[in-house]
Amino acid sequence: MTPGGDGQGRWPPRSSATAIAPGPFAELHPLLAERIGASDGDELAVVSRRGRAVAPAIISRGIRPDTVFKPFPLPGQGRANSLTDPAIDPMSRMPELKVCAVGVELARGTA
Asked: What residue stretches are annotated with the Molybdopterin dinucleotide-binding domain (predicted)?
């Protein structure tokens, strides 16, 4: 999974971010979507060893086939922060980069 925003964890102000992405989503390449049987708009479960986030799929050729993209500044069940390590540097208080290994599958039995 890769971070949202500019790749450094910075997003535009919240009102701008929600105009860009009004709700959580999981972006994936058509090859990965085909492998898991997903179509545009299907609810996906993105799972790491730290948590689970459910969000609709956006199928795009603009992403690598081995990557799932989720925006970070969005709240709720689909939030990407539930998947990543909350560790911060003890001196600078900077968070670790928001990249982690995940699995992705069709979400079954979730709203």
From this structure: 18-101
